[in-house]
Amino acid sequence: MRHFTGVQDIGDLHEALRQALEIKKDRFKYVELGRNKTLLMVFFNSSLRTRLSTQKAAMNLGMNVIVLDVNQGAWKLETERGVIMDGDKSEHLLEAVPVMGCYCDVIGVRSFARFENRADDYEEKILNQFINYSGRPVFSMEAATGHPLQSFADWITIEEHKTVVRPKVVMSWAPHPKSLPQAVPNSFAQWMVAAGYDVVITHPHGYELDTKFTAGARIEYDQMKAFEGADFIYGKNWSAASPEHYGQILNTDRSWTIGERQMAVTNNAYFMHCLPVRRNMIVTDDVIEGPRSLVIPEAANREISATVVLKMILESL
Ligand code: AN0
Ligand code: CP
Up-side HSE of residue 300: CA atoms within 13 Å toward CB? Predict the structure, then answer.
């Protein structure tokens, strides 16, 4: 695997899971693989888990790590061609990216949807500029439309906790005060369908995700109906994905906040969320603190998914 931008890049899913469980038993098994190799992590947006878990993964593999927070200390970057750069941006991405490639062997990029232009976001313009101009293998640390390292970790977590071969996995929209990207729900839906689970997505009207990511999942607009018999509940907010309302908040109905009322109709489901989460907007204190909450094991598995992905990339160098 050279680049990692989605589930399609990982190859055979069961082999990936086997490697994940192997690494979980012995995180330093491949510590020689990354000797004298450098990972550059480039952040256009904030992060806690991705930053720490990916750096830890690189250290598991013996790599050196450099972190660049583009908005803190680097030059402000222009991303459009043809712009007369007489404003506040001092450098163009088309020089900055190949320069970054000079100092490392692998690049991880976090670059959220900007909600300025749907086509640019859905074409993954920034991530693709890294792929096309850095000369290095590139992996997504959450780009405009996907967060595959998160979904891989979520999948490992479900495999570790499921009690039936094909669990019912329900992803539920929940309210949030700010516009959030569709990256996490897109990747989660796509990865869960690829894993062969019974996948249901529930959200208010207007929050339909792009079918490129949700094909194979069922949509149920009635949240309580969707939750019936669920084995896993995945809470997440996202903003509207449609061209007419792209990036907008269309609904703030707090009856969608996931609490004991909804969890009561599930099959004693586990609760999952990628974090960071706003309590009592997305999920109540009781549910997230309850015995069926998997939010911490999911975060722990981010180290494992990142180690597998970096290992596969290092093996391709
Ligand atoms: C981001 C999002 O929803 O995509 C990152 C989640 C991993 N969340 C926020 O910006 C709060
Ligand atoms: N889940 C996740 O990616 O968290 P961060 O935004 O803190 O990295």
Answer: 11
Residue environment code for 37-60, b if the CB has 16+ CB neighbours within 10 A, otherwise e: bbbbbbbbbebebbbebbbbbbbb
From the CA of 235, the nearest ligand is: 1
* Per-residue model confidence as pLDDT tens digits over 9-21: 999 999 999 999 9
The alpha carbon of 236 and the centre of ligand 1 are apart by a number of angstroms equal to 9
pLDDT by 10-residue block (mean), the chain, 317 residues: 98 97 98 98 98 98 98 93 96 97 98 97 98 98 98 98 98 98 98 98 98 98 98 98 98 98 98 98 98 98 98 98
User: What is the residue with the minimal CA distance to atom 1 of ligand 1?
Assistant: 180
224 lines ligand 2 (CB under 6 A): no
Q: Is 296 in the pocket of ligand 2 (CB under 6 A)?
A: no
Show Cβ contacts of residue 102 under 8 Å, excluding neighbours closer than 6 positions: none
Q: Which residue has the tokens 């720490």?
A: 52
Question: Contact at 8 Å (CB) between 44 and 76?
Answer: no
Classify residue 162 as exposed, middle or buried by CB count within 10 Å of its CB (0-12, 13-18, 19+): middle
Closest listed ligand to the CA of 174? 1
* CB contact set of 10 (below 8 Å; sequence gap of 6+): 1, 4, 16, 148, 152, 309, 312
Longest dimension (CA), the chain: 60
Tokens of 26: 């012995």
Query: Which of 42, 50, 67 has most ligand 2 atoms within 8 Å of CB, for mutation?
Result: 50
> Among the atoms of ligand 2, which is closest to the Cα of residue 45?
6
Q: Which pair of tokens denotes residue 309?
A: 């992905």
CA dist 178 and 237 (Å) reads 9
